[in-house]
Amino acid sequence: MGKKTVIGIDVGGTHMRSALVDSRCTILQRRRTTTEQSLGTAHVSHKLVLECRALVQEAAEMGASVAAVGLGVAGKIDAARGTVVFSPNLPAMRNFPLARELETGLGLPVTIENDANVFGLGESRAGAGRGIRNWIGITLGTGVGGCLILDGRLWQGDGLGFVGEIGHMIVWPGGSRCACGASGCLEAYASGRALVEGIRDAEARGELPEGDLHRLHTRGELTPEDVYRHALAGDALACSVFRTMGRALGLALTNLCTVLGLRNAVIGGGVSGSWDQFIEHLKESLAENARMFDPDEMVITRSLLGDDAALIGAAQTALGLEKV
Ligand SMILES: [Zn+2]
Q1: From the CA of 165, how far away is ligand 1's center (Å)?
Q2: Segments forming the whole domain that contains residue 79
Q3: Of 237, 156, 161, nearest to 195 (Cα)?
Q4: Residue 323 covered by a domain
């Protein structure tokens, strides 16, 4: 048999993206389809099996074989058991043995890992974290995820099904409500959802002037991209929402770096595309709050791999390469 490959899959709430990846982290083929999670857990499992079978077929056509499958899923994941404990993207999947289901359907070994952790593995192997022994990863998407690469390995904690949940660090006690039920979490200020809610809160205070943002908000059509577009154009309210985001991120990083004694952080996820609107505020916050370290020594970089980090990282778990 020819070249050995693995499949990496990023299972999102609306789309599942999958890729055939070789041992050098090169993506050979990719696929994308809708998750259709509203049709139930069995349907999502079946779709995953179909996507994998299609990639196995494509591998065979290249003279390659597929050794294993790795999945990245948002939420609390019991990686040792291959179980989705719960996922905000797949609310019907509670304590669901997804790895076993797929192994039965495919006849291949299957691993599952938290989506921010696979981001960390991907960036470590082939992206912005390559060659860096210790770093903090933050993913800015609908929510805020995080991971820790310590001493060259993905930090797994005590195997409790969560680790590096940077989005749920409280940066403002009694502050804005987070999706997790707590108040003042980083995610309540630095996620795509928080950008939209920042505008909504301004409207509730009577501080959203008439105009395009007001119209989009009233129609229920406002997206994080709209807020970014308005900030770029100099809209004061949109800029203030990004200022809050940057300052919250800076505070979270100050605390993490003070505790861990680290100097490197990599920020990824779709909302990190608005980098130019929050990075200066993040640095301001570091400069104001850091006492144990010189904020100028901190190296904060953007993800190099973008969406591919999750695919490549999930493939690393399939290869059993959590050590990076
Ligand atoms: Zn929270």
Answers
A1: 9
A2: 4-122+308-318
A3: 237
A4: no
